[in-house]
Amino acid sequence: PYGVRLVLHVTENLVLDTIRQEGCPDKIWREVLEQMGLKRGSLLFKTDLEEIKLKLKAELLDRGYWDPSFAEEIQPTERGVEVRIRVTTGPKGHVSGVAYEGNEGLTRGRIKKGAPVKTRPRFFWIFGGDYDPLQWEEDLQRMQKFYRNEGWLDASVAGKEEVSVDGKKIRLAARFEEGVRYPLKSLRIVQKG
Q1: Helices of type H across 126-189
Q2: Cβ distance 152 to 179 under 8 Å?
Q3: Is the pTM of this model over 0.70?
């Protein structure tokens, strides 16, 4: 009568039976699942689902999809749970143009020749022009390196993206901060010894 009454509430982890998706490109889905290492019989935590969504979002953004969103549904099965993730990729942006701003020391043509931009505007509404943020970042770094090699040692290049209201057109701009140009007057190489 004077003892301690102990009540334990046990929450069992979910066991994954199947995991399916709707709306995501298959290649991206397979890559993310492979990274996660989830398979039938794996213990499934809420953090696993959040991590899947974060990785999917990062992959979709890297491939030019704007504003991806997700909804998940978990249903019990005889062997565990079935997880269904619905993916809305959002629109995929196409580059409508690339502008060069603040480049007073070098012409647009000289920059394009010395540091070719691989990010291209859409041609006749058919060819190319898919926005790839990683490629655009590489283009900006290549332009900055070219500018510095031409004597503007403090030059920096920043990218700017203007997205249309419908999210389908992206106008890119490379904004140059040149700084002072340091021309090389002479170069002398001296061999020691």
Answers
A1: 133-149
A2: yes
A3: no
Which residues, in sequence order, are CB contacts of 11 under 8 Å at separation 6+? none
Burial label, 156 (beta-carbon count in 10 A; 0-12, 13-18, 19+): middle
Burial string for 131-143 (b: 16+ CB within 10 Å, else e) reads: bbbebbeebbebb
Instruction: Specify the DSSP element, H or E, that contains 16.
Output: strand 14-22
Q: Read off the tokens for 168.
A: 């389908």
Burial zone of 107 (CB within 10 Å; 0-12 exposed, 13-18 middle, 19+ buried): exposed
Please state, rounded to an integer, the average pLDDT across all residues of the chain: 86
Gyration radius from the chain CA atoms: 26
Residue 193 clears pLDDT 90, i.e. is over it: no
pLDDT tens string 3-61: 888 888 776 778 899 999 999 989 999 999 888 888 888 888 888 999 999 999 988 88
pLDDT of 128 above 60: no
Q: Calculate the dihedral angle through the C-alpha atoms of 20, 22, 28, 33, rounding to the nearest 10 degrees.
A: -10
